[in-house]
């Protein structure tokens, strides 16, 4: 009764009962602008909590027919209104990712995944100047908590893409890109911690911090990036969860789980990776058809997701390494990949915070708790 997801579930059912998932409803209601904003907020938050808690989606994309928000939907389209629109845009990409996940055995699934990459690149490229972390060529960030949180959402969406759609890209790109996103998140949370403002965040940030912690633990478990930077950034994220736990005690459960995972994967690790030459199948998964898009184009798409200066985080140099990858060409370097394909390696090799197999199902009360238990089994 006290969980945010419980009240979100009630609000979602009221949305369907009132017909607010259909655009024609807004032609007759008294306050269409307010109700449309509410509908989009519920839609994006439902996607966030479904991913975070491992519960089935209550609003499927093909059941939601509400036009995107425009300035006309606000009494005053100020900075806060524009920020809400940008948050809605980036979080809506999760619904498309879930669709791609379920189409991964179809030939057009890979192209749909690349379309999502292009959408993420378009979002960050078109972000208004007032919401950017950096102004022009100035390597120093101007602290704005709302802007920091907006970019945290962006980096979480990147990580979610590589979890749900990572089969469409080479693993040599997938894991380094998620590590860069994790490093960026850690540095943003660090500044928020300095100002003691992390307590202003909603409990969904418990999951965001956990997602950012996984690549750091993976790096420490035997990759090329097992260094002091990974330990430092993991410590930042630990402190973030500890601070969140003051207001949201459920963060303690995630902290305990991450500590267990660290103990299992790092303190008692066994070598589970090897360095293989690039003439091997870098996807690591032979049942999928190799993508026909040129590797250089793919590398460029991934690199364009991080249009930040090197001062953003210590891992930004990884982007240059990703860009230089071009499989099948002479002179290509060796790449770290799993010794054998393991479904748990891509992103859910660690703490299984959510189960993608249930994310596009309809909400069934009799099975929801069973799915929830599976999603949080450690």
TrEMBL record:
<dbReference type="GO" id="GO:0008270">
    <property type="term" value="F:zinc ion binding"/>
</dbReference>
<dbReference type="GO" id="GO:0006351">
    <property type="term" value="P:DNA-templated transcription"/>
</dbReference>
<protein>
    <recommendedName>
        <fullName>Xylanolytic transcriptional activator regulatory domain-containing protein</fullName>
    </recommendedName>
</protein>
<dbReference type="GO" id="GO:0003677">
    <property type="term" value="F:DNA binding"/>
</dbReference>
<dbReference type="Pfam" id="PF04082">
    <property type="entry name" value="Fungal_trans"/>
</dbReference>
<keyword id="KW-0805">Transcription regulation</keyword>
<dbReference type="InterPro" id="IPR007219">
    <property type="entry name" value="XnlR_reg_dom"/>
</dbReference>
<dbReference type="InterPro" id="IPR052073">
    <property type="entry name" value="Amide_Lactam_Regulators"/>
</dbReference>
<keyword id="KW-0238">DNA-binding</keyword>
<feature type="domain" description="Xylanolytic transcriptional activator regulatory">
    <location>
        <begin position="4"/>
        <end position="77"/>
    </location>
</feature>
<keyword id="KW-0862">Zinc</keyword>
<keyword id="KW-0539">Nucleus</keyword>
<keyword id="KW-0804">Transcription</keyword>
